[in-house]
Amino acid sequence: MNRTDRKGNHTMHSPSDPFSSTNGWWLPAADSKPDDGRYALEAALLRVKKPLYLVEKDGQLAVSHSGQAVIPSSLDSAQPPPASYPLRAYAAPLPPEQLGSRLFRERHGLRYAYVMGAMANGITSVEMVTAAGNAGMIGFFGAAGLSLPAVEDAIDRIQSALGERPYGFNLIHSPHEPDHEAAVVDLYLRRGIRCISASAYLRLTLPLVRYRVTGIHRDAAGRIICPNRVIAKVSRVEVARHFFAPPPEKLLLRLKETGAITDEEVRLARHISMASDLTAEADSGGHTDNRQALTLLPIMINLRNEMMAQHAFQDPICVGLGGGIATPESAAAAFSMGAAYILTGTVNQACRESGSSDMVRQMLAEARQADVTMAPAADMFEMGVRVQVLKRGTMFALRARKLYDYFNRYTAWEEIPAADREMIERDYFQCDFETEWQQTCHFFAERDPRQIERAEKDPHHQLALVFRAYLGKSSKWANAGDAARQMDFQIWCGPAIGAFNQWVKGSFLEKPENRECVTVALNLLTGAAVALRANWIRLQNVTLPSGVDRYAPQPRAKLSAILEDDE
Q1: Which DSSP string do the residues of 464-524 spell out, in sequence order?
Q2: Residue 112 DSSP symbol
Q3: CA dihedral 93, 96, 101, 102 (to 10 degrees)
Q4: Are 367 and 497 in contact (CB under 8 A)?
Q5: Beta strand 286-287 with 277-281: parallel, antiparallel or unpaired?
Q6: Residue 213: helix, strand or coil by DSSP?
Q7: Residue 179, CA atoms < 13 Å, CB-side half-sphere
Q8: For the chain, what is the total number of helices (H) and then of strands (E)?
Q9: Which residues pair with 115 in a beta bridge?
Q10: Nearest to 35 by CA among 12, 62, 15, 2
Q11: Which of 195, 233, 317, 395 is positioned for an S-S bond with 487, CB 3.0–4.6 A?
Q12: CA–CA distance, 343 with 366 (Å, rounded to integer)
């Protein structure tokens, strides 16, 4: 049986039965012996680019990165070679760049199968997208909620900084602002944005389909080339089914009728999937259905397989996982379940490069797993769609839910009881209703004037626009770090932040000023590799010492040394 000696070394089963769990034997290289003890095992697991031979040495676990394994066809009659050690387990090299799908990495020109998700209002900032692209990852600029000039400015800066290196932009479903969604697609096509993250879609739209199929053609070999890639972010199976299928025929024909696409683009579009890749979005910050990753990812992968078989697409669709990924173990679990890539969001908002404020970063650094709640979404307010936000240190969620309740109960501002109107003006708007309405009109005059025209005829729509304006500004107050508005901060946040804070507690990453997005990403990926190698060892019937596989965050310099370990 396994036991621990007086020095804390983990010893093996009784030596009277030395080969009961032996996989073979290990022959050391010339003039070398395996290293024993807990710390040797920890160091060996960490050297993820090296093979790991786990052997028995004097009844204890010992490790080596060199030597030769001898695996006989049968251990029953085999004899140990001279000078050999019983081989208990073997773990292959697993550098982080091998995690996930090779197809996904090659499709997007990545070194790592790691995506920094598009958090709206520029929270996934130019700086973050640039850092990701330079590190061999991909980030998606958070264009949702921003004006067209702001998005184009971000395009200028990112294209100048990254050139041909990977990057993408967000396209969010805008059911109440279809003209703005169409204008964003016009901008992306005009500026050569070749990869978008399509988020919060409840159904496919004309602008999204137009983006996907514009420029589709056959190459000299007859293969269909679709230059514009869509990575959909989806929580619901019924929505995923649309992205795993060709663009809807009726939308293609409507685009053709308006001259937006050609006859050839229509014909070829019938043979491609709407999404080149799809992220199964589990419990996350922002728009979420609070799905569980353990059930959601297998469902999405199985649906992808079914739809691929049905439509016989030329190019495979990769399925990744986002939501709840904030520790090495959760990243390892995602890859173990077959995720082609992982996507992070909340943990990036707490990083220095995010477009948020130092106040928000500090609030996120103090958050626990249960410090999140659901609140009405600004962009889909009337539909009752909700987003997940931080509740610790802010009253936004409570106030947003009250506004939604008022919207459902009353059809005009004047119908709301006088005491409640006074409270809303004093605590929420911090001005009278008429002033708030004028500010709302100023916003929509530039964004979508038709909303104002409708509100002037429909008091209920006016109420919706004003309440939506408060919800929309609450995120901007948070990003700006407006201390006078802290109680109104809308901070999109999933429970992952609590797990992340627990993991980094006591390390250099505990302080928000030390959190850099690429350093966090590389630590998650390296830690996932350590966790996976440790699990391979357990599956070979070895019980590891408690905590030996716990990966602690490493500073960038030490991490670089680990990942460049080619000796």
Answers
A1: HHHHHHHHHHHHHHHHHT-GGGGGG---B--THHHHHHHHHTTSGGGSGGG--HHHHHHHH
A2: S
A3: -80
A4: yes
A5: unpaired
A6: helix
A7: 8
A8: 21, 21
A9: 138, 343
A10: 62
A11: 395
A12: 22
Identify the CA nearest to 86 among candidates 117, 108, 56.
Answer: 56
pTM: 0.92
Q: Nearest Cα to 469, choosing from 430, 417, 423?
A: 430
By the 10 Å C-beta count (0-12 exposed, 13-18 middle, 19+ buried), 237 is classed as: middle
> pLDDT over 70 for what percent of the chain?
95
Helices 517-538 + 38-46 axis angle, to 10: 120
Buried b (16+ CB within 10 A) or exposed e, 377-415: bbbbbbeebbbbbbbbbbebbebbebbbebbeebeebee
How buried is residue 163: exposed, middle or buried, by Cβ count under 10 Å (0-12/13-18/19+)? Answer: exposed
Burial 104-132 (b: 16+ CB within 10 A, else e): bbebbebebbbbbbbbbbbbbbbbbbbbb
The answer to whether 500 touches 527, Cβ cutoff 8 Å, is no
Side chain identity, residue 206 = L
- Terminal alpha carbon distance of the chain: 36
Amino acid residing at 96: P
Q: Which residues contact 129 (CB under 8 A, 6 or more apart)?
A: 116, 139, 140, 141, 158, 162, 167, 168
Measured distance CA(50)–CA(559) in Å, rounded: 15
Residue 366 one-letter amino acid? E
Identify whether the C-beta of residue 5 lies closer than 8 Å to the C-beta of residue 57.
no
Yes or no: say if 98 and 104 are a contact pair by the CB < 8 Å rule: no
Structure tokens at 405: 């309740």
**225 membership: H or E segment, kind and range:** strand 224-225
- As a whole number of angstroms, the distance between CA 319 and CA 161 comes to 29
| Nearest of 2, 6, 5, 7 to residue 17 by alpha carbon | 2
* Furthest C-alpha separation in the chain: 93
pLDDT digits (tens, 9 = 90+) for 32-61: 889 988 899 999 999 999 999 999 998 889
Cα 395 from Cα 485, distance rounded (Å): 10
pLDDT at 565: 72
User: For 26-40, how does the pLDDT look when each residue is reduced to its tens digit (9 = 90+)?
Assistant: 999 887 889 988 899
- Chain segment 534-555, per-residue pLDDT in tens: 999 999 999 999 999 899 999 9
Helices (H), 286-417: 293-311, 328-336, 346-349, 358-365, 396-409
User: Rg of the chain over CA atoms, in angstroms?
Assistant: 27
Burial 85-101 (b: 16+ CB within 10 A, else e): bbbbbbbeebbbbbbbb
Query: Which amino acid does the sequence have at 388?
Result: Q
d(Cα 187, Cα 286) in Å, to the nearest integer?
25
